[in-house]
Amino acid sequence: MSDPRGIKRRYQQFAETECKGYSDAYYRLALAVAGDDEVVDFIAAMPATQPNLFLASVQFLTGPHGMPTTGPELRAFLRRRGGEVGDVMRSRRTQTNEVGRCAVLLPALPSGPLALLEVGASAGLCLLLDQFHYEFGSTSVGVASSPVRLRCTVAGPVPLPTTIPQIVWRQGLDLNPMNVHDDEAVRWLLACVWPDHDERRRRLEGAIEVARARPPAVRAGDLVDDLPAVLAEVPDNAQLVVFHSAVLSYVSLDRRQAFAEVLATASKRRDIVWLSNEASGIVREVTALAPGLGELRFLLGRTRFTGGQRRDELLALAHPHGAELTWL
Ligand SMILES: C[S@@+](CC[C@H](N)C(=O)[O-])C[C@H]1O[C@@H](n2cnc3c(N)ncnc32)[C@H](O)[C@@H]1O
User: Fold this and answer.
1) DSSP conformational letter for 23
2) 244: Cβ below 6 Å to ligand 1?
3) Distance CA 230, CA 283 (A)
4) What are the residues whose beta carbons fall under 8 Å from the beta carbon of 198, sequence distance 6 or more?
5) Could you give the CA distance from residue 322 to residue 106 in angstroms, rounded to a whole number?
6) Counting atoms of ligand 1 from 1, which one is nearest the CA of 94?
7) Closest atom of ligand 1 relative to the 277 alpha carbon
8) CA gap 12, 205 in Å, rounded
9) How far is 224 from 190, CA to CA, in rounded Å?
10) What is the CA radius of gyration of the chain?
11) Are 164 and 113 in contact (CB under 8 A)?
12) Residue 100 near ligand 1, beta carbon < 6 Å
């Protein structure tokens, strides 16, 4: 049983820092949770209590347009269907596969040919970044006919790409890969999109369509223990880029360090570019480059490993779902 006071604080903070001005639906619901002892006690009895997991579990059962919209509706819903919400919360984890983040990663990619390895890839949709269409303000790039259209507002000297680098090899690694041919997995991916974010839902549906035609390979495994075996398979004739978004926050500081050590060791054989797109504080060496910056944004870090040595850069601040990018 988690501490109910901690849960109240967490939902209040989620409402104020992540939802306010971005999702009225989740802003209202998260605040309603924080003020309702009965709902908080329900969440506190779950093995994992984070807002995205709880709210996605409700949405999994109702669909985006049938979700409770007020505190009393949410409490009544839990009285009726709390058993089912609990089953979903116990059997699923937050696996939001947000293709909007590709717009943040694209300007940071080296020129090709590239070998892409994504850890914490979920369904691997971000590995398909060369299949999408991008609008960075008035600049467009990518596949004009793609069903995935990503719009990203830019500020600062973003090195906007004129073409997408050639990708000759791609592989994902995830504790629990999501299969785009499994209807229940797809329903869960859609439930992880916030209910009033219609554009995000449309582009996720588009990315699933692209992935169904050409599924990205995502292997089941841990980002530390199983990384060396995957690294050993990367072809020599391409620049290796290892990347992740919203993943390292799910592992302990020790495991984050162990992950970087695996990359450092592998870089004795070949150069590696590591792109990290994570909340402030998650990659310590990148956060240290700009203390106090980006509390509410993701930090886009680029670390070059050569011969076992690392060189870190903080490239940009980014909206967590890729709606905005400020190059530093
Ligand atoms: C919030 S999702 C982000 C998915 C994807 N990176 C994106 O940005 O769309 C986090 C993913 O990390 C995976 N994950 C968490 N811990 C992991 C670990 N130790 N090893 C591999 N994957 C992990 C989860 O299974 C989940 O799919």
Assistant:
1) -
2) yes
3) 22
4) none
5) 11
6) 1
7) 8
8) 30
9) 28
10) 20
11) no
12) no
Q: Are 7 and 22 in contact (CB under 8 A)?
A: no
Q: Which of 250, 276, 321 to mutate for ligand 1's pocket (most ligand atoms within 8 Å of CB)?
A: 250
Length of the chain: 328
Task: Output the tens digit of pLDDT for each of the chain's 328 residues.
Answer: 889 999 999 999 999 989 999 999 999 999 999 999 999 999 999 999 999 999 999 999 999 999 999 999 999 999 999 999 999 999 999 999 999 999 999 999 999 899 999 999 999 999 999 999 999 999 999 999 999 999 999 999 999 999 999 999 999 999 999 999 999 999 999 999 999 999 999 999 999 999 999 999 999 999 999 999 999 999 999 999 999 999 999 999 999 999 999 999 999 999 999 999 999 999 999 999 987 775 678 999 999 999 999 999 999 999 999 999 999 9
pTM of the model: 0.94
